[in-house]
Amino acid sequence: MAKDYKKLLPSLDMSRLPRHVGIIMDGNGRWAKQHNRPRLYGHSAGAKSIRQVVELGVELKLQYLTFYAFSTENWSRPEDEVRGLLKLLRERLIKEIPELNQQNIYVQFIGSEIHLEPEYLAEIRAVAAKTHQNTGMVVNIAFNYGGRLEIIEAIKKLKPEDIASLTPDNFGHYLWTKEQPDPDLIIRSSGEKRLSNFLLWQAAYSEIYVTETLWPDFDKIEMIKALQEFQSRNRRYGGLN
Ligand code: FPP
Question: CA angle 119-121-124, nearest 5°?
Answer without folding.
Answer: 105
